[in-house]
Specification:
Length: 209
C-alpha cells in the first residue's frame, strides 16, 4: 500500500507546528476564517511557515473570503496550497494562481463524481462532515461508504478523525491523505503532542496491511 499523507490542521503555535513536523506530518493547515477558534493572523502564519523544513506543505484555509483578504494573506505568507471550504466556484479557486484543494461537506444527496468533474482543476477533494451552518472543524465523522472508489481526484479524508479511529479510516477508505484538527487537540487551537504521535502511529499501522 502507498503511503498516506497527513495534514495537521488548525495550527496556531510555533511549538505545535514543530511537534507536527517532528511526528512526520506532510502538511500543516493555517486557518484564515475569522469565526474559527483556530484562526491565525497573517503575521502568526508567516512566523509558523518560516519554521517549516523543506517538503512540508503550508496550506491556507479560507471560507468564502473576499478576494482582497486572500490576496493580503498571499502577499505576506508563502503558502504552498490553498484550501477552499465555502461555496467558492471553480473559476474563483483557479484565479489565485495557486494549487488548491476543494472541501466538500458531505450533506445528504451530494454527488461526489459531479463535484470532482466540476472542480477538475483542483489537486484533490477534501471530504468533511456536514453540519448546518458550520463550514468545518466539527469533530464529527460521516459515513465513509458514501465515497465512490472511482473518483478522478485524490481524496483527502477529514471529519471526526482521531487516534482511535484513524487506522480503520485509512483501511476503509484508502485515501490519498487524511486531515485532522480537533482530534489531536488538548483545547481548541492547542495541539496535544501525545495525540499527534498516536494519530501518526495509527496511520502507519493501517499501511502495514
Amino acid at each position: 500500500m502507498r503511503r498516506t499523507r497527513v495534514k495537521i490542521c488548525g495550527i496556531t503555535r510555533l511549538d505545535d507546528a514543530r511537534v507536527a513536523v517532528e511526528a512526520g506530518a506532510d502538511a500543516i493547515g493555517l486557518v484564515f476564517y475569522p469565526r474559527s477558534p483556530r484562526v491565525v493572523t497573517a503575521e502568526q502564519a508567516a512566523a509558523i511557515v518560516a519554521t517549516l523544513p523543506p517538503f512540508v506543505t503550508a496550506v491556507g484555509l479560507f471560507v468564502d473570503a473576499d478576494r482582497k483578504d486572500i490576496d493580503a494573506v498571499l502577499e505576506r505568507v508563502p503558502l504552498d496550497l490553498l484550501q477552499f471550504h465555502g461555496g467558492e466556484t471553480p473559476e474563483s479557486c483557479d484565479s489565485f494562481g495557486h494549487r488548491y484543494i476543494k472541501a466538500v461537506r458531505m450533506r445528504p444527496g451530494i454527488d461526489l463524481r459531479e463535484m470532482a468533474e466540476r472542480y477538475a482543476s483542483a489537486d484533490g477533494l477534501l471530504l468533511d462532515a456536514y453540519q448546518k451552518g458550520v463550514p468545518g472543524g466539527t469533530g464529527e465523522r460521516f459515513d465513509w461508504d458514501r465515497i465512490p472508489d472511482d473518483l478522478n481526484l485524490p481524496v483527502v479524508l477529514a471529519g471526526g478523525l482521531d487516534p482511535g479511529n484513524i487506522t480503520d479510516a485509512v483501511r476503509s477508505v484508502r485515501p490519498f491523505a487524511v486531515d485532522v484538527s480537533s482530534g489531536v487537540e488538548a483545547d481548541k487551537g492547542i495541539k496535544d503532542a501525545a495525540k499527534i504521535a498516536a494519530f501518526m502511529r495509527g496511520v502507519r499501522r493501517a499501511e502495514i496491511d
